[in-house]
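In the design runs reported in the main text, the only information available to the sequence generator was the tokenized backbone. The following block is the verbatim input for one such run; it is reproduced so that readers can re-run the procedure and compare outputs position by position.
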């Protein structure tokens, strides 16, 4: 499959082939299948975030026992791992400097 250029903003969950405003936090080259997988991970992050929001309003449920938070963290790490794998050297260095993957992921 042909790889195309995509602009990614993890914070907003945006994946676009068109650069505008601040949607280019990360620029990668990926196939349609890779983008579909990345979209699924970012959607899972959003879903976990919503579940965590509702959990936060239930005082008897402790934060450290919240599967939604664990799901969010796991999908966030997997998202950055994909960006690391699909990115150029500059993106790899940026993600390494963030420390989100740890040494064992790179």
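Verbatim output:
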């Amino acid at each position: 499959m042909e790889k195309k250029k995509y602009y990614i903003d993890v914070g907003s969950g945006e994946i676009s082939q068109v650069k505008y405003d601040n949607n280019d936090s990360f620029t990668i080259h990926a196939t349609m299948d890779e983008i579909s997988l990345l979209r699924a991970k970012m959607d899972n992050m959003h879903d976990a975030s919503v579940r965590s929001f509702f959990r936060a309003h239930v005082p008897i449920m402790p934060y450290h026992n919240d599967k939604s938070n664990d799901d969010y963290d796991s999908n966030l790490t997997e998202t950055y791992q994909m960006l690391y794998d699909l990115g150029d050297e500059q993106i790899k260095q940026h993600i390494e400097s963030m420390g989100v993957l740890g040494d064992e992921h790179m």
